[in-house]
Design brief:
The chain is an alpha+beta fold. It contains eight helices and five strands; from the N terminus they run αααββββααβααα. The chain has a three-stranded antiparallel β-sheet with strand order 1-2-3. A hairpin with a 6-residue loop joins β2 and β3. The chain is globular, with a radius of gyration of 17 Å. It starts with 6 loop residues before the first helix and ends with a helix.
Length: 250
């Protein structure tokens, strides 16, 4: 077997530890400007293997895109099963703070507000609280636009499960333990605050049926989808895997 070095090895273990050293900052051809989401605090998924850093920055440069493809190649495939029996409550109540085994759990703040605090800027909190966000500025990675969000229009920003829960149910989560399903539903690796209409348009689609409108983050989105699939030992459909590879130049 050929010896693998550098970013390729990092891609294979990206879920266990981040890679040291700098990244190839060259921009690939095409529309890779990234809009609002490319600047500020957003992190590349290759530099954010546990999901605790904010946003979803584009994966740029052929070295990183090769590492992305290497990671995606490790994801197994199978056909999408039936949705029979799926219920959101099988993954615990929404935004529970008590799902064990995931970052930010049991910190006294529910998962939704943890995500708003992670990704939002210019945060304003409810009086007397350092948890409940009532206003913020969000650089939305899915559309590339900046959203000035207020709690009175809560649905303008939604928390996306990158790997939708019903998708996971059809790919094997129906046979998981309750604890593992609760972890997936509240794992910050699988959660991104995004433009509400974009998230609604996605529904429970895999990457073959839906990708972020912002083309610059499509490879990053594919990487994050793969990171979640690998962490939870979950396959994706063959069509989804092909589309994920295509977004990273495969």
């Amino acid at each position: 077997m050929a010896r693998r070095t550098g970013p390729v090895v990092c891609a294979a273990v990206v879920l266990l530890a981040g890679c040291a050293g700098g990244r190839d900052g060259g921009s690939p051809a095409g529309d890779e400007s990234g809009g609002a989401a490319a600047g500020g605090r957003a992190a590349s998924p290759l530099d954010n293997p546990d999901g605790t850093k904010p946003g979803l920055a584009p994966v740029t440069g052929e070295t990183d895109r090769a590492a992305a493809r290497e990671l995606i190649e490790t994801v197994p495939t199978k056909g999408r099963g039936p949705k029979t029996g799926y219920d959101r409550e099988d993954f615990g109540y929404a935004w529970m703070d008590t799902a064990d085994g995931v970052p930010l759990a049991r910190n006294g703040c529910d998962t939704r507000n943890d995500l708003l605090r992670r990704d939002g800027q210019d945060l304003r909190f409810r009086s007397g609280s350092d948890c409940v966000v009532i206003a913020m500025t969000l650089a939305d990675p899915y559309t590339g636009k900046t959203i000035e969000w207020r709690k009175q229009q809560a649905a303008e920003v939604q928390i996306d499960h990158v790997v939708p829960l019903s998708y996971s149910w059809q790919m094997g989560a129906s046979r998981w333990s309750e604890d593992k399903r609760e972890q997936l539903a509240n794992d910050v690796l699988n959660l991104i605050p995004v433009d509400g209409p974009a998230n609604s348009a996605k529904g429970d689609s895999g990457p073959a049926a839906w990708l972020p409108p912002n083309r610059s983050v499509r490879c990053a989105y594919a990487v994050r989808f793969a990171q979640v699939a690998v962490k939870y030992e979950m396959p994706v459909t063959p069509d989804d895997k092909r589309m994920m590879l295509t977004q990273c130049g495969g």
